[in-house]
């Protein structure tokens, strides 16, 4: 059995021989028979990876400055320091450097290709003229700066891609501050807006009776603005007790962190809504998820 990969990325399998073992075959030859199978599995894995990337969309007109791949698929990482500098997902993960790009430069993660050329041009212009800092100075994130402890963190959030749960504010990033295991050459992702989106009461509608109840509340089916399919809504009632308020802050930070983990095995949260509780007692936290 043999295999090869065609130019369009598909696996082509060739079968040959009867498949019967030869009598008296040396042990080393029996072991070597696994070679073609291992190569086939690797080729299939590669094809599956290519298929997944294609499903994420093509970055038309964009060239990776690490591997020179033109119109690459999948995540795109745009450097906020270097002019017109992009990495594909693989080159970002390999922590490559090229041209004037250095380790420690922050990247903007672009998960969905930008189709509108005017928007692409506008983004490049904003980065070139260094206008991002002023435009986002009033943005509030549900986390704190690991260096100066600003809480909540304001402005652009610089999240380390090498350290666990490590963020810097604009000032500490510019001053090159570090703490703990974080060093200046770690890869940073610039986050412009909070991961967890806040919704208003008119943005959603509960369309079922409670599907389940637990210690912390009820679960409903719901319609959410911007989503064509029904989603799940978890209602949690919190009192004015100080411990409940502390738990609320901790919970939102935990959900925010889970949003940043890219995995099919982690529940995706779309956002939340906080409303007055029934009879004006405490608050109702509505969590929207898959």
Account of the 3D structure:
The chain is an alpha+beta fold and 290 residues long. It has 3 domains: 2-55, no CATH class; 76-191, no CATH class; 197-289, Phosphorylase Kinase, domain 1 (2-Layer Sandwich). Helices cover 25% and strands 25% of the residues. The chain contains 7 helices and 17 strands. Strand 14 (217-224) and strand 15 (231-238) form a beta hairpin. The chain is globular, with a radius of gyration of 25 Å. The two termini are 43 Å apart. The model is unreliable at 1-7 and 9-31 (pLDDT under 50).
Which spans have pLDDT < 50 for at least 5 consecutive residues? 1-7, 9-31
Counted up, domains total 3
The biggest sheet, with number of strands, parallel, antiparallel or mixed sense and barrel status, is:
7 strands, mixed
Order of helices and strands: EEHHEEHEHHEEEEHEEEEEEHEE
What share of the residues lie within helices? 10-25%
Strand content: 25-35%
Structural class: alpha+beta
Q: Give the count of helical stretches.
A: 7
Number of strands: 17
Secondary-structure blueprint:
Layout: E1 2-5, E2 11-14, H1 27-32, H2 34-55, E3 76-79, E4 86-88, H3 89-93, E5 106-110, H4 117-128, H5 132-135, E6 140-141, E7 153-154, E8 157-160, E9 167-168, H6 170-174, E10 188-191, E11 197-198, E12 204-206, E13 212-214, E14 217-224, E15 231-238, H7 242-259, E16 269-276, E17 283-289
Parallel strand pairs: 5-10, 11-16
Antiparallel strand pairs: 1-2, 3-4, 3-5, 6-7, 8-9, 8-10, 12-14, 13-14, 14-15, 15-17, 16-17
